[in-house]
Amino acid sequence: MIAATRYVRLRFPPRTHGLAALLTYASVVALCSGARLGVVPLVLGGLTFVLLFLFLRLVDDLDDGTDGTPAGLRTGMVAVAGAVVLFNLHDLLALALAGGACAAALIAPLLPRHGITHPVMLFVAYEVAPLLVLGYGGVTAGAPPTVAVGAAVVLWSAYEYWKFTRKLDEPDYRPFGLGLGARLVAAAGLSAVAVVAAAVISAVGAVPWAVPVVVALIAVACAVATRSWWRADRRGPAWWSGLTFVLAVDVTVLILCAAWGVWG
């Protein structure tokens, strides 16, 4: 128990990673604002959402061979998976999506071991799992398919932005073989994908047009700051890197969708 608590504190801090996961789940539900969840499904969905991201962390650490013994990490994965099943027995579709996310996370590390190393194929393999986790949020909200997929893509893009812009001071951090310049370009492209997805769900009336407009302004601000940072040949964390885009999108969605619900 002590080892598990220490692992969570170091590798999935509740005040950062846990809070970001909860805000993201709340944002998925807000983007699917036509749905009305009861308190119990909302709580179970939020807990499951956080646990699924913890599961992804456990799989990553097991794959990397760091931050815990293999036996301990596998035990943690089994415990988390068991809790996910227990929390979702009332909703078989949500359970299937959560199970798919866990399966995708477990399968992805097998590809490089079998000689599959193309960056695009690895990106697709590794990033299906977080997309399914975010899709889980839309399913629990009972949203129509277009809205559920759109909401998942908006927040998946923000999550991927975090992945590509973190660890700016570590030259050896090369996700999918991309160097620093390439991953910053990828991050800018992902922020654009978030804008397009937000526009799609706004076009079907799920959220106000203010959502894609403000997300676009955030994306442009981050892109301009990134370009300035790069041209100045700086290194190390910057205000636009890491969780900034995720949190900015989450807060934007929550505030605008709440205002739309009250005054729309």
UniProtKB/TrEMBL annotation:
Protein's recorded name: 4-hydroxybenzoate polyprenyltransferase
Domain of life the protein comes from: Bacteria
Native organism taxonomy: Bacteria, Bacillati, Actinomycetota, Actinomycetes, Pseudonocardiales
Transmembrane parts of this sequence: 40-59, 71-87, 93-111, 145-162, 182-203, 209-230, 242-263
Coiled-coil annotated spans: none
Keyword terms: Membrane, Transmembrane, Transmembrane helix
Record keyword Ribosomal protein present: no
